């Protein structure tokens, strides 16, 4: 048996292991890939166990854990339940704009139930003509007395047909043109909303992505989040935390494939000796283990700095990029070294690869992560500031 390096530790781990066993998260993750649906029962169970909203303040129903501890919990949720259940745990973080800038009424009606796993709130930024260049958003929220009238289309939206509400980013024509867009909390059952699921996603199929059309949807002023034109400023700090926490998830998923492959090649023989004694197999796996550890240590350092309130926008972007690349390489080797079975649905590696592959696109593509880091190195040559886009 291989001697595996230790895993990140935290007092919350017995809770993660207990709910993973009770809900059989590994099996359920694979079921949701083959028969996609939003796992509301598991979402409620995670919320009831206090594993949704790990960073959320206790007064809002969360655990109030420091970011490094949240990262460890997400790493282990990813390791046992794939990106599916780790990202379910992270849903309140994706909607922290609502908690930090929404009215007390919106927080009570939507954010607290989200932390309990009772209501699902999606995010809608991307449009057919505005992906990474979110500054090109064309959806309009036109003031009309004590309401706004919302018109436009959002695309590649996670939970397009399942979200109970969504944070929608739109332009208000009367707002200061020098500012960005405005955030709104939009219940998805309002008249004038049409939701369509996109068929054939490569991975993370349980999110059931799609498009959402808004045709003269009337929205009370009370559903605006914060001030007009400040939506992207609110979103910026949220995205920085997301990048670092997503890195933890991808590394946990990859660690599962790495462990399984290390054990397998120690047992499997070819040409009269174990695969683990053959350099073409052993060396890449050793490199993968080192790269995963290095990416994890970097991610933890970023989370520690975030917890201290430091500006780590570029470092968090690099953590996401580094973790995604290390994870994909590791899982690709798991597929390769398991041979024909690795390429099949008999083993979980191919789904893990497809699910983690979203990390190069969602929540800001890899190219944008590198751009964020580059503008930190050369601030005087900065030509522009494309805003991040996310679909999950």
Give the key terms.
392 residues, alpha+beta, Butyryl-Coa Dehydrogenase, subunit A, domain 1, Butyryl-CoA Dehydrogenase, subunit A, domain 2, Butyryl-CoA Dehydrogenase, subunit A, domain 3, 3 domains, 4-stranded mixed β-sheet, 13 helices, 14% strand, globular, disordered C terminus
Describe this structure in words.
This protein is α+β, with helices and mostly antiparallel strands. It folds into three domains: 13-101, Acyl-CoA dehydrogenase/oxidase, N-terminal domain (Butyryl-Coa Dehydrogenase, subunit A, domain 1, Orthogonal Bundle), CATH 1.10.540; 122-228, Beta Barrel (Butyryl-CoA Dehydrogenase, subunit A, domain 2); 232-381, Butyryl-CoA Dehydrogenase, subunit A, domain 3 (Up-down Bundle). Helix content is 49%, strand content 14%. The protein has 13 helices and ten strands. It has helices spanning 13-23, 25-34, 40-48, 67-89, 91-94, 96-101, 104-115, 231-267, 279-307, 313-337, 339-342, 349-357, 366-377; strands at 121-124, 140-144, 147-157, 165-170, 182-187, 193-197, 210-220, 224-225, 269-270, 273-274. Helix 1 runs parallel beside helix 4 (67-89), helix 2 (25-34) packs across helix 4 (67-89) and helix 9 packs antiparallel against helix 10.
